[in-house]
Amino acid sequence: MKIFRFDKEVGAKITKYNSDLAIYTRIIKTSEPSILGCMYIEPNGVVGYHEAPVPQLFLVVQGEGWVTGEDRKRIFVKRGECVFWDKGEWHESGSDEGMTAIVIQSETLNPESFMRIKATE
């Protein structure tokens, strides 16, 4: 499991097209078909421990919560951070207060080509 950032602090100012006060953060480019979805985890909700059928990118866009990898250790995640699980990796996610995430699934995800890994705390 890897945790990345996509918050505005790691983005780039948009200077083309007479743009002002706008920032763009690249997330992913795929060469194979992808599935994009939105996941709503309600307060005290859990997406149970399971194996990723394909590489998955879980982008937190609202709220906060936790994720685990194969070690089942909970790691806090918040808006502007995302988690990458590779195919076959066991994981779980949940939230005490509620969390919304965009989920991208594709055989060819490589988030490191665009995004910055979150520094360990």
From TrEMBL:
One Pfam family it belongs to: Cupin_2
Signal peptide from the UniProt entry: none
Domain Cupin type-2 residues, every copy: 39-95
Protein name per Swiss-Prot or TrEMBL: Cupin domain
